[in-house]
Design a protein that fits this description.
By secondary structure, the chain is α+β, with helices and mostly antiparallel strands. The chain contains 17 helices and 20 strands. The strands form 4 sheets. Strands 12, 13, 14, 15, 16, 17, 18, 19 and 20 form a 9-stranded antiparallel sheet that branches. Strands 5-6-10-8-9 form a 5-stranded antiparallel sheet.
């Protein structure tokens, strides 16, 4: 069955849920992606299901087509990598209308559609005095975040977002609809917790809830003259473990402001200036300080406003054990790479350090396992996240080369100092990185077996673009 025949069959089956080029719905879907690299891809049609049955019908039709017919699957569309959630000349399934947020009467769980965004999930739960483990940024989609693991400000208390999933609702390549939980299809339940889009289309998640009120947090902005004090505070925070504390520290270069330091602090209970944050609070001067009693949704909105949407942008990441001198050394590698490309139009480059505390992987082990590849005895790590923003498509290659050089130099130096760790957090991985292969060498065979069991024709491995494949 050719692509043209597939589109016709989709139109016959799903009617107005199929959008073609030059229509309002089609164009809205394209322009709503986070980055230009995604928006500029042109699928032959876009499927916008409103129910799991719609998804099942679409997958049933597409999976029986010629092997040349490919598709991409989108929830929030926040992943910046070209082709991760959109496709040129194929079919894109846009899941944003599957955005239900239904709280169980017990307030102990909530059903969340894969197309929901985290800010709206928080806003629904906050009046009830409960929350879930979710993303830092308001507009990040639920589906991609959880399937990539989901590192959150609440992870020090509860683990990755995927560790809080009681049940996945999944459409298989056959078009069948199944549920995966601790009792039914348990192997799939474990594999989906950080295993990306390799097994089926997840349409809904049942998530564990917990009591949560106001939190204390916000953003501070400092000049680069405070770099050593900020890095010392970051190391001190790691030594003073507090499960309520979470932090991202970013060092940003732009042509307008040169270098600035922005620290996002989230303390997930309403305790002003908790002890673990005091090394940061004595740093002077601050250009900006928004630390206050707030909510997860308000803080997610604040972070969202700092995001540079509708630009050319990408993420890359690597990991190493914490060391003050190494944090300085990685910063120097970052500056060297910035120097090479600082004249590019629209350039903005950010190096972010985020803690991954040793306690976080243990929650996954306690809750039946996951596919992140992290052992319960993991040492505390620093995720080094490189974010690059630029204007011209002609500079794409230069930016990717710069990022690849940065990662190679950081990894080589980390290995030389005995600080290297192979973990690549999937949600921050760049297009040329291979997080599933790197993180899960010991469990990769298990993931392959699960894939073959639920997708014997390997539809999601070979014909669904985006994500990171088990065979990568």
């Amino acid at each position: 069955m050719t692509l043209q025949v597939v589109v016709k069959k989709l139109q016959e089956a799903l009617h107005s849920r199929i959008s073609l080029p030059n229509t309002e719905v089609y164009e809205e879907s394209l322009t709503s992606y986070f980055t230009t690299q995604q928006s500029e891809l042109k699928p032959v049609c876009i499927v916008k299901p409103i129910s799991v049955e719609d998804v099942a019908e679409a997958i049933k039709i597409i999976s029986t087509a010629d092997s040349s017919v490919s598709l991409a699957i989108r929830s929030g569309g926040h992943n910046p990598t070209k082709g991760s959630a959109n496709i040129d000349g194929g079919i894109t399934i846009d899941l944003r209308d599957l955005n239900t947020v239904e709280v169980h009467s017990s307030k102990q769980s909530v059903r969340v559609g894969t197309g929901a965004i985290w800010g709206r999930v928080y806003e629904t739960l906050e009046p009830l005095g409960i929350s879930v483990v979710g993303a830092h940024v308001y507009n990040v989609g639920v589906g991609g975040f959880i399937l990539g693991g989901g590192l959150s400000s609440l992870s020090p208390r509860f683990g990755f977002a995927c560790d809080m999933v009681d049940e996945f609702e999944v459409v298989l390549a056959s078009g069948g609809i199944i549920h995966a939980n601790a009792d039914d299809n348990r192997d799939l339940w474990v594999a989906l917790k950080g295993g990306s889009n390799n097994f089926g289309v997840v349409t809904c998640f049942t998530l564990k809830c917990f009591p949560e009120g106001k939190i204390w947090g916000g953003l501070t902005v400092s000049p680069m003259t405070t770099l050593d004090a900020n890095l010392q505070a970051l190391v001190a925070m790691d030594a003073k473990w507090d499960k309520y504390a979470s932090l991202k520290q970013s060092y940003t270069f732009s042509a307008k402001t040169k270098y600035m330091i922005a620290t996002n602090i989230e303390y997930t209970k309403d305790t002003p200036e908790p002890e673990v944050t005091k090394p940061f609070l004595v740093i002077q001067p601050f250009y900006r300080n928004t630390l206050r009693s707030t909510t997860l949704s308000e803080l997610a909105t604040e972070i969202q406003k700092l995001q540079a949407a509708s630009t050319r942008q990408t993420f890359y990441t690597t990991s190493f054990k914490i060391s003050l001198q190494h944090l300085h050394d990685v910063m120097n590698i970052f500056k060297k790479q910035v120097d090479k490309v600082e004249s590019l139009e629209g350039l903005k480059m950010t190096l972010t350090y985020q803690r991954l505390h040793a306690a976080i992987p243990s929650y996954g082990v306690e809750r039946g396992g996951n596919a992140t590849g992290l052992p319960a005895d993991l040492p505390s790590l620093v995720l080094a996240i490189l974010t690059c923003t630029w204007s011209k498509a002609s500079d794409d290659r230069a930016m990717e080369d710069t990022a690849e050089t940065f990662l190679k130099e950081v990894d080589a130096l980390s290995a030389e100092k005995g600080l290297y760790h192979p973990y690549i957090y999937l949600n921050y991985a760049g297009g040329f990185q291979r997080p599933l292969a790197t993180n899960r060498q010991s469990s990769q065979q298990t993931l392959r077996e699960v894939s073959l069991k639920y997708d014997s024709q390997q539809f999601f491995q070979n014909r669904v673009h985006g994500g990171f494949k088990i065979t990568d």
